[in-house]
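Appendix B. Chain record.
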Amino acid sequence: MLPSTPSRDDTHRLAPADGDIVITDPRTGDPVGTVSPADQRQVAAAVERAKAAAPSWARTAPAQRGALLHRIAAVLRDHETELARLNERETGKPLDQALGGIAAGVATFVQYAELGPLHTGRALRGPATAADYTVAEPRGVVAVITPWNDPVAVAAGLIGAAVVTGNTVVFKPSERCPHLGRRLGELIAQALPQDVVVTVDGDADTGATLVAHPDVAMVAHVGSTAAGERIARAAALTGAHVVRENGGNDALLVDAGVDPEWAAGQAALGAFANTGQICTSVERIFVHQDLADAFLVALVREAEARTGSLSFGPLVDDALRDLVHEQVREALDDGAEALIGGVVPDGPGSWYPATVLVGCRPSMTIMREETFGPIAPVQIVRDFDEALELAAHDRYGLAATVLSKDLDHIQRAVATLEVGTVKVNAVFGGAPGGSAEPRRASGSGFGYGPGLLDEMTLTKVVHIEAAP
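Structure tokens predicted for this chain:
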């Protein structure tokens, strides 16, 4: 994201003069609670605690570390309803979806519990009378900075990979769900030796203080592009390794020859799931002119069915809603048309309807930048070549989806689109252990899967010869 667009980890909530963060329920506007951000001294103390715990934890056998991750998974299962209720109150995420996010976090801890002890070095080919091999060693203290839109699952991946490879963690959850983040950190910490995971409350300033600490060896961040770029600049001064998954402007290419109703269902899922608050949401839709009419009719029907349904929550706060609506209003003023939605509803809470825009052009902000709301902006194209050219012209590089029956078109899209993930005929999904490496403004490094274990470790080469 640009600084002018909604950030997933920069506070937009009203805070009192003393700097405390006030959380309100985005469904009703009712108060949830107040959190005091950690100051510089408290952040430094948290890093010192994690640093002191690091040597002992690094010496712990990988199998034992894996067993403790299984314990974390069990603790989270026991507290899933408590965590889901906190998620629901702080972010507006419907309860069943919040429970699904916790289940995904549990599964991720289990995955790393199994993968961690199997993370091995490599044998190298040297002289027959010598031994050459590599070993993976923990980096040290890892700062884990996570967003609000899928807070448990994302934190589970980054913390799980860091801990199972022998690192200690200072965890800074999003200021938009600090009560959930604090409780999650407590539950994880109680299953581990003291200070292997330390949690600090706070906002963007807290995160900046944490990233700048010289004893932080690595920063693992999921959030906005603006925040990620600030982290990368700060880490360049300390030498910390950075892995970041940041904003996306994912394109959906709808080719001729596919079922328009099925394609509309895929588009709706990609654009409206979690009220559009997913890093890999569909942000731009390019549909072939031959099926545009039928596709749009079906997409409007999908949007109508979602708005007001139990599975369709509010946006996280009024500030995000204002920024989403600003992009919609700008597009409408520039010639786009809203087939459905596009109006801020009356009443309490941060609700916004599923919206379908047509007549969109590449120059519009809504086609150039991540919106992070339930918006489906559509541009009708002459052919697949035009769709591919438009989709490829973007500063982000997170993911893209192609709906097509034409193998040549699919293969050309895979070769042309400069993104970390190309999905064919499914907007979401993937193998359980899949990895992805975002590009350009979307970040860098493997943020999940087996590749994240490599990011969390340093490689040491060992050469052994017999003494004469």
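Further analysis of this model is presented in Appendix C.
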